[in-house]
Amino acid sequence: MNTPSSLDADQAHARLGELTVVDVRTPAEYAGGHLPGALNVPLDRLDRAVPDLEEAAARGSLLVVCQSGGRSAAACGRLAARGVAAIDLAGGTSGWAARGYALERPAGAPARVPWAMDRQVRLVAGSLVLLGLLLGVFVHPALQLLAAAVAGGLVFSALTNTCAMAVLLGKLPYNQAGAGAGVGARDGAAPVRDGRQEA
Length: 199
Fold this sequence. Notes:
This protein is 45% helix and 10% strand. By secondary structure, it is α/β, with parallel strands linked by helices. It is elongated and about 60 Å long.
């Protein structure tokens, strides 16, 4: 039987009991609401979790999810390169919630959730471009190179389906789970489900 490369929210909901769901968003995004039973393996920690994910994939299908589908598609590609089959949730957590399906939140999760990573990247990239243009006009024309560098980075990001800015933003304190939430895999640790480390 061929494994589909992606499932929509309705298909995933119907098969949820037979899937291992892997959420590749930041710990703070995960704490803001995730698919029932999802494991949190942030994208920047995916490579360290491959042995655990290989074991999970041997027991059944992996469903990889993020906010809207971009990071999960990248994660599926990285897993495929390591020989681990995974299915992408088309539309991500946003699509899941839009269909009216429930999201879980860990006990003690903060009431205020940070913006989704793609929104944070758009804000920072746009701000840097605007800053570069303004500095180029009011301070020195060479400072417009800041805007050009950000534009080049965005083009590179699109061509390689990677985002260094998202990785850097994901390391900021407000993108980590609150001290009491206990969500998110620590370096070298197994994936985490609702604050409990997986064995």
